[in-house]
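hey
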């Protein structure tokens, strides 16, 4: 199977939507192009050298794993996420799995890859989609990707092995229930684009840097320029002569359209768009198609396939990407400054000093919608950990970040306990496993010594912000 996947012919292009490529919140940590930075030792583990090449290989593998297996869009990661630290963790765990004798067979890798939703289409594994993603999007050969997948599966098994099992007591279940579901009185502030000044226009240097960072990921959409004629649905299809006259006198020509675009003079019409994009040769025509009281016939003028965007074609998109990234950095800086102010002077004083608009929620439980924020969804878990009188960390929201203070908390409705018991037990078990795993990882990290001068060459942009790298 693995061999078959490597040699399957690919017939269509993978389109990566521009909207998900650069979302404010991700700072690309990239390896220096200076070849001198790629030699030497990145660090040692139990006295054994870790070559820079091994570190870089794991760095790239870790980023791919975040995207494909962990279900994390790297473009949504906070700039505070330390990709270098995650890379070291991967190296440590892969080595520990090997020492523990964990073996992953070809059959294991095949089965696991087939089960990943990202490689599935129409309810099952798609060899075509698999190949397109790894070759066109991830830009890696299948053999290398499958070996990385073998390592990833091994370290997952190692993690599960050291976590062990845990069964919470009734008292622990009830304590957790009260913390999670007791209605809370909240105060909060938000940091969005409204809190920061409009960014300066992007420069040529910034746009080119963004384009380089996204090399191979910017694709134009498939599009078609057509013309069409229309008659009433009740009318019979015209004769060849009558249709020729119709095309000469009443045809409407469109600009280039993507499949999702409304059709000029018609509006959104998925059925018609689907028929248009079946045409591949200039001059080809659809059959007459009934839609909303009329019959339409389309003729293809020109078809453009999905294709990598040149820098010139991408300028407008890049300008918006740079603008959004600048806005995010300003939001993150302002929110971080507020966090420091809270630590130094307290919540009310920091809110006043930063001239922030204080919002309140009289009674909040997970799942409730919050004014100016909506539902917190996964981020709500972070808020659930905050006790009375405490202030939360920065919590991501759709428009930026928010910081909460829990003013008070009432007792939950005990009738809910039976309904929530299973999810609370699962939550406690996961928390326990994370603690155990964290302790094991900390022990592994104690064997690690990092060669900071070498890594400073490897990641000059990161270490420029921290002149004295630390272990």
């Amino acid at each position: 199977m693995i061999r078959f996947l490597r040699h399957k012919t690919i017939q269509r292009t993978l389109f990566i939507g521009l909207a998900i490529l650069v979302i404010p919140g991700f700072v690309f940590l990239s390896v220096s192009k200076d070849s001198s930075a790629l030699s030497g030792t990145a660090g040692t583990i139990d006295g054994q050298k870790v070559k820079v090449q091994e570190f870089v290989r794991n760095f790239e593998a870790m980023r791919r794993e975040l995207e494909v297996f962990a279900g994390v869009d790297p473009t949504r990661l906070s700039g505070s996420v330390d990709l270098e630290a995650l890379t070291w963790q991967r190296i440590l765990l892969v080595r520990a799995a090997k020492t523990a004798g964990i073996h992953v067979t070809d059959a294991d890798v095949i089965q696991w890859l087939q089960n990943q939703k990202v490689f599935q289409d129409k309810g099952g594994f798609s060899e075509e989609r698999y190949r397109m993603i790894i070759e066109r999007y991830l830009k890696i050969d299948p053999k290398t990707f499958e070996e990385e997948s073998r390592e990833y599966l091994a370290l997952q098994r190692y993690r599960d092995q050291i976590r062990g099992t845990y069964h919470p007591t009734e008292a622990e279940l009830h304590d957790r229930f009260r913390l999670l579901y007791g209605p809370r009185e909240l105060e909060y502030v938000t940091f969005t684009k409204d809190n920061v000044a409009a960014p300066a226009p992007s420069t040529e240097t910034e746009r080119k840097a963004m384009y380089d960072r996204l090399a191979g990921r910017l694709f134009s959409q498939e599009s078609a320029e057509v013309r069409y004629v229309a008659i009433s649905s009740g009318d019979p299809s015209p004769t060849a002569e009558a249709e020729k006259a119709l095309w000469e006198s009443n045809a409407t020509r469109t600009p280039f359209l993507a499949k999702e675009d409304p059709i000029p003079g018609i509006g959104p019409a998925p059925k018609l768009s689907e028929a248009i994009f079946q045409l591949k040769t200039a001059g080809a025509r659809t059959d007459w198609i009934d839609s909303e009281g009329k019959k339409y016939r389309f003729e293809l003028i020109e078809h453009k396939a999905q294709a990598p965007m040149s820098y010139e074609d991408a300028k407008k998109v890049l300008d918006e990407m740079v603008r959004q990234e600048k806005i995010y950095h300003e939001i993150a800086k302002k929110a971080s400054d507020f966090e420091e102010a809270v630590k130094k002077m307290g919540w009310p004083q920091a809110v006043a000093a930063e001239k922030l608009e204080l919002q309140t929620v009289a009674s909040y439980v997970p799942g409730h919608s919050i004014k100016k924020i909506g539902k917190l969804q996964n981020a709500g878990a972070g808020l659930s950990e905050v006790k009375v009188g405490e202030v939360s960390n920065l919590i991501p929201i759709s428009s930026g970040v928010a910081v909460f203070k829990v003013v008070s908390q009432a007792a939950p409705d005990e009738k809910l306990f039976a309904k929530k018991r299973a999810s609370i037990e699962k939550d406690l078990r996961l928390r326990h496993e994370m603690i155990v795993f964290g302790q094991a990882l900390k022990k592994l990290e104690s064997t690690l010594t990092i060669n900071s001068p070498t890594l400073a060459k490897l990641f000059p942009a990161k270490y420029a912000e921290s002149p004295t790298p630390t272990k």
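The mean pLDDT is 82. The chain has three domains: 2-165+433-465, 183-211+312-410, 222-305.
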